[in-house]
Structure prediction request, 447 residues.
Amino acid sequence: MSVWKACDLRGVYPRDVSADLYRRIGRALATRRDVGARVLVAGDFRLSTPELKSALISGLAASGARVLDAGQIPTPIAYFTHGRLETDAVLIVTASHNPPDHNGLKLMVDHFPPSPGEIEELRGASERGEFRDEPGSVENVDLSGEYCAWIRRRWASIQPGMHVVLDAGNGAASEIGPALFESLGFRVERLFCDIDGRFPNRPPDSAVAANLTALCGKVRDTGARLGIAWDGDGDRVAFVDESGGVASADEMAVLLVRHLSPSAQGRRVVYDLKLSDLVRREAERAGLVPCMERSGHAFIKSRMIRERCVLGCEASGHYFFDELDGGDDGMFGALLVADMVARGGVLGELRRTVPPVFATPDIRLRGGALTFAEAAARLHALPGIVGEVTIDGLRVETADGFILIRSSVTETALTLRMEGRDAASLARLRSACLSALPEIPAHLIGA
Prediction:
């Protein structure tokens, strides 16, 4: 399976991603831009990041780019710096939520994430060696202080004193996240807030409820009103209520729709096709226009920017805001939810106002026992299909609900999700799925 994904690059270091690969990517990208193009480079705190980031910078500088090295910082600060300095591109060495032995590359060219076609063009140029020999330059930049000042100004009126537990998972938000919350008057309990690229305490993926067990326990033990967890590079965020219950992405999407809708009537909301149909119904009820989009950071962000949508929600815990010019930021999202909770009670009470969702979690199928083409063909042949969506994999719809199968954009895996109209409908969908795809272990889908 290629390390080149639909909208970024991911793989195991050094088996799949190496300094030579990053040097070639840097040369290829610089060659495709004008001499002197200003390219911002940043990275997370994985153990392999310094080597890969250095190689990327050397490749860019060898083919005429003016490199601005922002160091190792959370991804949201890299995006902030890109916007403030109006650089021609931003390249971030990170594998985000992937395991510690992985690394990758997120990028934006001008104001947009790359399309799959643009990723393929960059891949081809790097592999063919289409490089320009032209000396560039490298200089250091640091807008972390400016970012923090902006956050403090934006949330200056937030209600102080709330007791929160912050779980950074030893990732990029470990230092800056708690510091920002404390500067805004929160009472902060830190959990795994020492930067450590080995991620010794939990996996970097904050979207998996099983990874938040310690956070749930800490919230209960300390009596905190809210628990917040970030992923490895700080752009995803997850939430735990006062009783230690993990809020689902479906619930958070509904609550954010309700929170933002009073001042955004008629505006568009982009939602990941993996999310519950409840998100669509709630958006319509709140006076917003729901827009289903292909799953993946680049696709939702591009739609946000092009259509000036007020909100974007992804099942993985990326939340996008028009206020951020369509971008996502785990710290901004965390503060928005903290403000929502401060004004509206406690998260558990807010969650109880959301209608129940009868759905499986996002199930990852690894190992290659089943290809997407095989799975899609069998699901397509199921009886009782009344519709299908093919913008990202295959989502078959029946009178009971939907079954979605797709290839992950960040991992070598298939992802599966089902939603029923009620518990009985979901049980029927599970049975139909197991009948069509017997390779799937029944326990993975709760059957």
The chain has a mean pLDDT of 95. The first strand starts at residue 9 and ends at 12.
